[in-house]
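A quick aside before the break. I want you to see a complete sequence-to-structure record at least once, exactly as it would be stored in a machine-readable document. Don't worry about memorizing anything.
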Amino acid sequence: MHDDLAFRRRIDDHLHRLVDEEEAELLRLSSELRPLCDQLRSSLTRGKRMRAAFLYWGWRAAGQPDCDGVIRAAAAMELVHAAACTHDDIIDDSLMRHGVPTAHAAFSETGAARWGGSGGSSGSGDGSGAVARTLVVRQHRSAALAMMLGDLLMGYAAQVFATCGLPGAYVARTVPLWSTLLRETVAGEFLEVLRTGTDVPEVAESLEVARYKTAKYTVERPLHMGATLGGAPRQVMTAFTAYGLPLGEAFQLRDDLIGTFGDPAETGKSNLDDLRDRKPTALLATTLALLEPHDRALLDKTLDSPALDESDAALVRRLMDGCGARRRVEDMISDRVATARGALDSVALPMDVRTALAALATSATARTL
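That is the input. The structure line, written in tokens, reads:
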């Protein structure tokens, strides 16, 4: 029986060893790289290691045994995720994740004495041009530092995967998948940025962003990576797409609900960011499609406010609840989880693999954080 906690500890052990080794190398270059080391460690100390788990079970679905090499390969997926989160936080100017400052917010504090000023990365200043320029410099430079951290994390992902210890021929056959994973993830992020702050797209367009930005690199591609490493047959790959895409979309839909209705004290991040940015989520698209004209006008006016606050957000949540949008998104999640579970019946899988993937379908979408 797979022990989830033990699995996560094995992944964490590999990531912590990587950080220890890289910290020593970075500090050998310059002691001024300490803030980079601190944020490197911070970015890898949290998480459910879900993407690693999907790669692992993709490998086991190919009939391969548990081994240290696949654990190291799975850890690379967590480095990809950490890189994506770092870049996403810059794009969204999110100041908190998991209850701690995001990388660019932390770098802003670290650099305050050097670049001038004090406080957070987006303070209002005293109105003078000099203070405003100082804040702009801090925001720009802290974002630049965080961007480099994200790039470094992605580089480490490739390094860890390539040196995982599995046979070279196994690793080589995953090269096209790495290109696909990166292409799809960037495409999803790019589409989200293009569609943020504009008229909310149709639900189908919102789901397209979710599919490429999150669904594929969270579920489908890690499964494919593990299955390809292990030499799984084509029918397993097909079943993993049929399982991974709806489950990945359900995961993002749950994330959208948490992002708007979640308690920041529990989630560790603001529940105003998606609304302030007018993110093109399926939740918002569904709300606008269901609202009566006068309520839609009220929602548009509220979201267009440059000073949207908690009372405004509470109004938006009431509108989402009242028109049935929240319930509709819950139904979308349930339907996709059912589809994903059904896909597991379309192919012969070892019983432990089937059990683990069924459990992951629940834990990925029933979470509150």
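Two observations worth writing down. Residues 119-125 have pLDDT under 50 and may be disordered. The longest strand covers residues 96-97. We'll return to this after the break.
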